[in-house]
Amino acid sequence: MAVLLATTNAQSKGDTIIVELAKTSRVVFTINDRSDLEILKHYDFNDLFKDLIAKLENDTTAISKIDSTEVVAESTEEVWNHSRDDEDDNDDEDDKWDYRYNGRTTQSFNFDFGTNNFLSDGKFPDNSDEIYAVRPWGSWYVGLSSIQRTRVAKKFFLEWGLGLNWYNFKFQDDNVLIQKDDAGTAFVPDTREVDFKKSKLTVSYVNASLIPVVDFSDYSRKSRVWDDHGNSFRIGLGPYIGYRVWSYSKQVYEEDGEKQKDKNSDNFYLNNFRYGARLQLGYRSTDLFFNYDMNELFVEGKGPSLNAFSFGIIF
Fold first, then answer.
1. N or C: which end of the chain has fewer CB within 10 A?
2. Distance between CA 74 and CA 9 in Å, rounded?
3. What is residue 24's predicted lDDT score, i.e. its pLDDT?
């Protein structure tokens, strides 16, 4: 069982914490600046101890280095400060790098929330008053992903992961009807005498991404709202690929005072695969994304020529 002792080092005007381990082993933390506590929160102490034990087991000279210590007496406690050789002092930053960063991969869950739309030959469909033009408000894009973040260099990462995401294209006209036949998919007005409330097309994908990221902070894990990592900025750009797992159209209307919903699950000649580029921008705990599908939403010749895109915030 570990025994934790706290004392104050009068010589360094800092706080010292001693953790007693086993019979003759102890770990000493001497903190002269309490801002270091934020850094300590991000240490992986399990990996740190594993590395130390492995080095001690494989290097018989390592234990002798511990004899080079100086004793500082304070009250009834003894505080042991490890005295390092000059060359060890020069490598202090490298050691900290090894224990905190080198080869480390962290995992997190990302929630993307934003809006989506599509372009036809680089223009919005509503510019030419197409019936399939969508509303930005209500056309929500949602994504859930498990992201692994691997440090490649000091400020360079690879963020790779797998997840699910949904396009929701809510049409500007509430009476849009999606029809499919052998010739392809067509968007036409629904001429029924009812009070239309909403019409939309929803497409969901399993998605994989690989985003190289440059992060100017000094932390392996991406900043969250509750973190205080200073004025850190990060930017990433990389590819993604998705496979369509479900798609359906939905109309909502009132008929004879009753609310009705017509839902039609179909592939509508949508491309089974989507691929594109993703841009991520982050500052402190806020991250934004922009996705652009490089291939068209529908199979060529079976629907309108549309490239989907989405943008929003990452939680």
1. N
2. 7
3. 72
Task: Name the token pair of 98.
Answer: 């090894």
pLDDT of residue 102: 47
Q: Say how far apart CA 241 and CA 20 lie, in whole Å.
A: 51
Question: Taking the model in full, what pTM does it have?
Answer: 0.68
Question: Which stretches does DSSP call E strand in the chain?
Answer: 3-9, 14-21, 25-31, 69-74, 77-82, 105-119, 140-153, 156-170, 176-181, 184-189, 195-215, 233-255, 258-265, 273-283, 286-293, 307-314
DSSP E strands, 216-315: 233-255, 258-265, 273-283, 286-293, 307-314
SS3 state at 98: helix
* Beta carbons of 280 and 235 less than 8 angstroms apart: yes
163 with 144: CB under 8 angstroms?
Answer: yes
Asked if residue 167 lies in contact with residue 308, where contact means CB atoms within 8 angstroms, the answer is yes
CB 277 within 8 A of CB 311: no
Contact by Cβ (8 Å): 240, 291: yes
Mean pLDDT in runs of 10 for the chain (315 residues)? 49 65 73 72 71 71 46 36 42 43 78 97 94 95 97 93 98 97 97 97 98 86 58 91 98 96 97 98 92 98 97 96
Nearest to 123 by CA among 311, 304, 273, 313: 304
